[in-house]
Amino acid sequence: MSPSDTAAPARTTRSASAPDDGLTRPVEFPRASRRDRIRSKPGLGHGYRIGVFVLGLACIVLGFALAVLPGPLTIPPVLLGLWIWSTEFAFAERFFDTFKCKAREAWAHAKRHPASSAVITIGGLALAGVAFWAVGHFELVAKGKDAVGL
């Protein structure tokens, strides 16, 4: 039996085989930029990332809070939050790139089918107008407050 037969098997590290999902990896940026200077200072880099995360989260939460209102009001704050996150986090950059691709496809579809896009848009605006009219005409906010006890 040779010494190479009795040698311990080589160890493989978990991190080498684990997929890189980009959750903790920062986005690449040019050297000598503002973010490079921020990240080079101990503590300031983490504070900057936390600030970016909190600001993006606030926009996304605002977008979901606006989901109770009629219309597409929820989309811009959520996209703004994703854009803010994508400036610093690789996972959000991938999500934002996917949304940009879908938006381009939707715009191209709307340009190919202008009549149906116009009908859908005008119909959605008309329904939103009817909803606002109904809330005011039937005093739904006051009835809701009375039902809840406010």
Features:
150 residues; mainly alpha; 2 domains; 8 helices; 70% helix; flat
Give a written overview of the molecule.
- The protein is mostly helical.
- The protein has two domains: 24-112, no CATH class; 113-150.
- It is built from eight helices and no strands.
Terminal-residue CA separation: 87 Å
Shape: flat
Helix tally?
A: 8
Taken together, the total number of domains comes to: 2
Q: What is the strand content?
A: under 5%
What would the average pLDDT be, to the nearest integer? 79
Q: Helix and strand string, N-terminal first? A: HHHHHHHH
Over all CA atoms, what is the radius of gyration? 25 Å
Sketch the major β-sheet: none
Which secondary-structure class do the elements indicate?
Answer: mainly alpha
Please mark out the parts with pLDDT under 50 across 5 or more consecutive residues, or reply none.
7-18
Q: What portion of residues is helical?
A: over 70%
How many beta strands in the DSSP annotation? 0
Q: Quick recap of the structure?
A:
The protein is mostly helical.
Write the layout of secondary structure elements.
Layout: H1 3-6, H2 14-17, H3 34-40, H4 44-65, H5 75-86, H6 90-112, H7 114-137, H8 140-148
Helix pairs in contact: 3-4, 4-5, 5-6, 6-7
